[in-house]
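Render this sequence as a predicted structure.
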Amino acid sequence: MSSDEVIALATDALRGQLLSVLPPGASVIVGVPSPDGQAVSGLFVHLLRIGIDPAVRNAPAPVGEVSYASPALGLQLDYLVGGLGGEALAELGLLDAALQMVLGAPRHDRESVAAVLSQPERLAALSPGTLGLRWVLLDLPLDQVSDVWVASGMRQRAGVFVRGEVSWRAGL
């Protein structure tokens, strides 16, 4: 499995998990909302940064034995989750639901991820292997939060910064 497939799968899983905790009628879109778009009740998920898990990057190479197993893939995916410009207090309620989902989300595996995907064929296309996914709340200093909003060109508002810690190892 390539890293772009893992990134798309994790992003779809975050979208689905957020959607599962929001009230009926709320939507979750992937990407930056259009500045000219109509204000609606919902959230957006925007991938800000892709990094390699330091534990995987710094793992020593096997010595002596030749290993035919696929190397582990460990990614850190940093997302901004924000409102789509609906009524301000309702939007804060949606962000609270997102925050609670992240704080209460245990580690997810292949089966629990499958339940929330909008494109389950992504998971079905994976070769057998081990998938792990965990959501972590990022607590950024206010000046960094402001810099993210300015750099993104979006109207500044409340948001939740979430890191997806994704691991994948193909089976033999």
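Summary. The radius of gyration is 17 Å. The first helix runs from residue 3 to 21.
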